[in-house]
Amino acid sequence: MSNYKVVLITGASSGVGQATARLLSEKGCRVFGTSRNPSRAQATSDIEMLTLDVCDDASVVACVKTVTDRVGRLDVLVNNAGYELAGALEELSLDEAKAQFETNFFGMIRMVKAVMPLMRQQRVGRIINISSLAGLTTIPFMGIYSASKFAVESYTEALRLEVRPFNIHVSQIEPGFLKTPMVNHRQ
Is 132 among the residues known to form the active site? Predict the structure, then answer.
């Protein structure tokens, strides 16, 4: 086994995901970043960008297969893909709420389900879910976003306890307000 870690980061075309990809690459990890449109990501020679839509089962399976076909393993999954839905709760449609959860919560679950068999087989792994302080304290006019991040918090805690016996470590990061492109793309 090589002495570097193989890392897969969802939502790595900008913001927290991109910064994480760059940092881990500088630390000697082999990093695979993902985006629905990898051609729009800032090109770097040390981060391999892959196409991934966390809302699509086939896309998730294909992305994980690409990584394992290229390097034979996956040590770390960073679930970062997401977006902020803003607006008064009474004005947001049910379809908007479902889309928020589909990306921020169910997309994370898809990724975990795709990598767990491999990590169990390897008998080691790390999953890092990017949550938010909004998952601890609700933010007015961002109630659906907050709800999606509360769901991430609960899921992550349960997953951490369930997979600990298999030497798979699970943690979450809860960033506060950051000036990233995600704010510019708030829906």
Answer: no
